[in-house]
Amino acid sequence: MNKVSNSKFSIAVIGLGYVGLPLAVEFGKKYQVVGFDINTERINSLVQKKDDTLQITYSEIASAAGLSFTDSVAAIANCNIYIVTVPTPVDDNKLPDLSPLLNASQMIGTLLKKGDIVIYESTVFPGCTEEDCVPVLEKVSGLVFNTDFYCGYSPERINPGDLVNTLVKIKKVTSGSTPEIATIVDDLYGSIITAGTHKASSIKIAEASKSIENAQRDINISFVNELALIFDKMGIDTQEVLDAAATKWNFLPFKPGLVGGHCIGVDPYYLAYKAKQLGHNPQVILSGREVNDQMSSFVVHKLKRLLHLNGVDKNGASLLLLGATFKENCPDIRNSKVFDIYHQLNEMGYQVHLFDPFANAKEVLLKHKIQLTTSLQKYDGIVLTVAHDFFKSLDYQQLKSATASVLFDTKSFLDKKIVTARL
Questions:
Q1: Is residue 419 within 8 Å of 409, Cβ to Cβ?
Q2: CATH number of the domain to which 319 belongs
Q3: pLDDT tops 80 at residue 206
């Protein structure tokens, strides 16, 4: 058997988004690394050391002496480690969309050589690597799994917008398709992750661990979201209730809110899909998803009620949504629930304006047919939907068209004294 040795790693990172780029940069400080992406515009930006996701700085990219970028498949043909960090979304029916993953596997299959290792980082359901990806690699390459080539799985744990808990500071779960490969994969990641690694006993264990990380957060958030729905009917401030409960030492500090993005709002569907295939109905997981998915509509109807109570429910009232991204202080708009709120309010006849200094206006227009507001005026209603630090600097009195204008804080982010209501 001709396995790659640690001293001869030549790495290709497939997919240079929030997950792939930080990984390519860190590996590029120690190894020869080629960062590959099918998005030519993205590659051109990275060649100029510019990261539009705002995760990695110019100097950080420049510090990775062994790193180069390409959109050419031929440029990664001589690599012996292929790390796949492509998206794993769901379709309109909330079913796993494996097409980016399988397309990447097919491409790698055309390049595979004896001894090569393919490592997947994309979030999947347990069994996906060996049951869905490996057959594609074998078919296209003509090679035999665990004889000619090998696989590993090391789930990503990137937190977009978090410049403190970065890649190297988060413990990394690793695994391999044989014990020997598992050690090689673990050593590879261990060479860059200062927080250390955890070597799982199998690829399925590693896959499952990632599945439950985000499902657990989703369920915890759904619990406090349901509390918000209940306390709203009681006229009780949910945040005050949580503050009181948090005085107990073991109370978990979760907050209600919109659950979007490419992880928490998506990954539980992967685990649920696999469970259903095995004949189990994952009631807790799916009920949590159902609660979280209805929060956009709850925000819309609560805002409508607040406008009515304040006497500003006139036809065509002017509304401002502050924030388009799925979370604070990052430009990622994937699966952002703010767009659901925008379209629902627009269909009700309101004049809706969307402002976000982080979001890419071109991307928002292309994907959601919404023109971001660039200059703020005065509004009958203001909804803070994303807790960007920038929004604390705004003069909200100047943004109100009248004393009765509504300021609805869905993140409990602003001073309670200036808001009409919180989620």
A1: yes
A2: 3.40.50.720
A3: yes
Spacing of C-alpha 369 from chain mean position: 22
Structure token digits, residue 78: 């001589």
Q: Identify the residue whose tokens are 């949590």.
A: 288
pLDDT at 265: 86
Angle, alpha carbons 122-31-179 (nearest 5°): 55
Would you say residue 410 lies in a domain? yes
- Give yes or no for a contact between 405 and 312, defined as CB atoms under 8 angstroms apart: yes
Could you give the C-alpha distances from 241 to 196, 228, 371, in angstroms and in order? 38, 10, 38
Q: How far is it, in rounded angstroms, from Cα 70 to Cα 280?
A: 43
Number of structural domains found in the chain: 2
Q: Is the pLDDT of residue 7 over 80?
A: no
Helix extents (H) in 48-98: 58-63
Structure tokens at 176: 């391999």
Specify whether 13 is located in the same domain as 159. Answer: yes
Per-residue confidence band for 5, with pLDDT thresholds at 50, 70 and 90? low
Residue-wise pLDDT tens digits, 152-187 = 999 999 888 888 889 999 999 999 999 999 999 999
| Residues 31 and 66: beta-carbon distance below 8 Å | yes
Per-chain mean pLDDT for the chain = 94
Q: How far apart are CA 184 and CA 320, in angstroms?
A: 52
Measured in degrees and rounded to the nearest 5, phi and psi for residue 118 equal -110, 120
Stretch 71-81: mean pLDDT, rounded? 97
**Sheet holding 32-36: strands in order across?**
67-70, 32-36, 10-14, 81-84, 117-120, 150-153
- Beta-carbon count within 10 A of 171 CB: 11
At 236 the three-state DSSP class reads: coil
Residue 1: the pLDDT is 43
Contacts of 59 (CB under 8 A, 6+ apart): none
How are beta strands 421-422 and 67-70 bridged, if at all?
unpaired
Q: What is the pLDDT of residues 329-341, one digit of tens each?
A: 999 999 999 999 9
Domain boundary among 176, 202, 228: 202
Residue 246: inside a domain = no
What are 421's two structure tokens? 């209501």
Cα separation, 359 vs 323, whole angstroms: 8
Domain containing 178 equals 6-202
Residue positions annotated with a catalytic role: 263
Block residue for tokens 């988060």: 170
